[in-house]
Structure formats: structure tokens, C-alpha cells
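Hey everyone, long-time lurker, first post.

I ran two proteins through the pipeline my lab uses and got sequence/structure pairs for each. Pasting them in order. The first:
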Amino acid sequence: MPKFGATILAACAAAALCTGGTAGAATPDSTFVLSLTDPRGDTTSVELTCGPAQGNHPQADTACRSLEQADGDFSRLPTKFQNCTMIYSPVRATASGSWYGTPVDFDTEYSNRCVADAQSGGVFAF
């Protein structure tokens, strides 16, 4: 290999390492920390990224589809049909992060975890 070509190859490899990795690595379009807090103050949190769907959310694909339908507006999430008990055990649901670069802070209360799952289209199903 000519010296000039080897120098360019080495510079390109160094640039890829310095910019965070491979040329094909995708940055998620949207990232969130989602939390549910019960009446005793116990909190469960998960991370969700969309575009591509990732994180430790147990139903990341479903949650991202629901957010796509609502264009990232948590107050417009689709409702899914599921039977829930009428037991009042409120949970505080919060979401913070960004949807395609737009900051998101959402905070609401659902009457129980099942209702949180159903009324959020699976976003708060954890």
C-alpha cells in the first residue's frame, strides 16, 4: 500500500474511534426515563429509546409504536382494550426525555398499574 494511502486509512480509523465508534452506529431519535411510583413511595423506572426501540422497557416495541401514534405527546397516547380491576391503588407515572429533539416532561396519576398500562398504550407497562 502506498504511504499516502496508509496515512489516510490510519487517519480515518482514528477519526472513527474519536467520534464514538463505527460509522453505522445510529443515535436514537427519542429517549426517555419512565417511572411508576406507588402509594408507599416505591418507584420502578425503565429506560426507553425509540428509533430504534431499545432500553430495558419490557415492551419497547409496543411502547414506541404507541408514542409514534401520539407523535410523542403522552397526553394523546392510544388506549388499549384490557380488563382492569376497579381496585384503587394509584400510581404516579412520569416520563422525562426527548422526542425527536423536543424535550418531554410528563406527570400524571392512574388509578392502578393496569389502568396505567391500558391508558398509555403499553408505555407504562412495566
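...and the second, right after it:
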Amino acid sequence: MGTLVLPRPYLLFLGDATECGFAKTALGLADWAPNLCLGEYGLPGCTVTAGLPPLTPAEARSKGARALVIGVANVGGVIPDQWMDALVEALDAGFDLVSGMHAKLASFPRLADAAAKAGRQLIDVRTPPSGIPIATGRKRSGKRLLTVGTDCALGKKYTALAIADGFKARGVNADFRASGQTGIMIAGSGMPMDSVVSDFLAGAAEILSPDAPQEHWDVIEGQGSLFHPAYATVSLGLLHGSQPDVFIVCHEVGRTGILGVSGYSLPSIPQVIEQTVVMGRLTNPAIRCAGISLNTSSLDAVGAAAEIDRLSTELGYPVADPIRRGAAFERLLDACLA
């Protein structure tokens, strides 16, 4: 699997994004690796911000930035034509390009030519290693926690990062295991699960979380949702291969429909718990839900606390917003480690 060595610091490219859910790479890097991010660069029409200083490539390069990171994760992982001028501008300014998109940077002749002329790198993070085996289903040593969701892009990565940090703060031996492009950029290593051939998804998840000491926890970043009509395959392969002892259901307050598709309503949290247990028992009969991670970013502190209390009473599980932390988050950690 190896450890990625990326040129840093970053200028985050927001493209023409108008929805935060599709700029999760930039937002995740700004939240979890702020020391690596010097600024952001958006095109006309972009309405999303990562809260960083707006800089042109030339301005960012003069401040020491070394790589332009495509901070957008759109449907299909495509690089549209309207981005090309900006990406070439960055190469000409002396940047390497780092992408987590499905589309490969070098497949665009204009980018390949510009990179060659400028002597710059085109780095695709979403490239799985060669030689991934099919899954064995063998029970591995160590303990595992997987974040799952009612939908995609609502907090599975943030939850896994926060729980891994919380475990470590308690003296628990734990590692965050990245399964998507943003997590890999933060952690420096991982497995781009949604770029793995379907027959090898569970095997890739086994590689992501190998045998470990019995008291060690791997906290695994979830992908997609078992209820998403496009991404459920990746979610299921990750569930089977990671063999989680514990899972956390992630949900965003106020979201009612599946992101990126029309006509599909969000499943209820109890539906997600039931489905995850039924399907997860194939490779870990002892799988259990420890609680709910609630994205309350649309609420103020008082409203968030009220919603956390209401949902915990209704569902009978610990509920917490891992970004707000506090006593509710400590109770969620208690349930994970119980």
C-alpha cells in the first residue's frame, strides 16, 4: 500500500462548486490539515469556501505553496473542460497538481503537455495499488470500528478522525484508516476503495486493516451508503472486508434525500442499523452498533444539544456530534470501547 509523499503546502482548488457536499475534499483538508493549506482558489460562480484566504496560483506560489489540490469531489469524479485554464495556470505558476478524481490528470493532453513543459508532477491519489487479492474472509486480530452512513458526504470521515483522536486521548492504541481521497491526503496513506475493481473490494479492505495487536483499534473511514443506488457496492465491500466489531451510523440533521440522485429518500437510522448488522454478520457475527454520529452543522449549539438529546432518547443509543465533542461525545467513545 505504501505511504504517499505529496508536495506541500497546498492551494485548494474549489472549481465552480456551489454545494458544500461536492467540495468535501477541500473542506476536509482545511479542517483536519490546516497547517498544510495556505489558501483557496475558486472560479467565477463558485459559492463554496473552505474559510481560507482567496489566492491566485501566482500569489500562493509566492507564499510557498507547492501543490494545487483539486478540492472537489463531484459525481463521477470528472474534470470538466471549464477547469482547464485554471489548472494550466497553476502548472505554469510552478505547481504540481494533486487530484483525487476518478479521471486521471495525465489523460488530458493539455495538462500532460503543460506539466511536461513546466517540469511539474501530475499526481492521482485515487489510484489503487496493483496486486490486490480477493478477500479471504479470515478473521484478523485486533479490533475494528467502521463509520457507515444514511448517505454519502455527511461526516463518515470526520467521525472516524474524531473517534481515532478520542481513542488516542484516552491512551488507546488506535489508527485512522483512510478509504477515500481526502482521508488519504490527510493521513498520507490508505486505500481508494471506490477505484478498486468490484471483485477485489473486500480484499482491499482486508489490506487496509491488517492483523494487529489484540487491544489495537483500527478506525476505518466509511464510504457511500448501503442505501445509495450508485455507491452501495463500495459500502458493502468495505463492510465485508473490514469485518468491524463496532460501527457508528452517521447522519446529517435536515437531510431528506440521497445526494446526487433524484427520487430516493434517505433511510431511517434504524433501517441503517438493521441492514448493517444483517450484512456485516457475514464476516463478523459479533458486529454491533455503538451509537450515532450526528452532523449538526445546520444548528446552533442549543439546537444541536436538543436534537442530540431527542434522538438519543428516541433510539436508545449514544448520540453525539464529533465536531462539537463534549460529554455526549465521551459517552459515544464509552459505548465504542465497552
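Reply from user beta_strand_b:
Welcome! Quick read of the second one: The chain has eleven helices and eleven strands. The first helix runs from residue 24 to 32.
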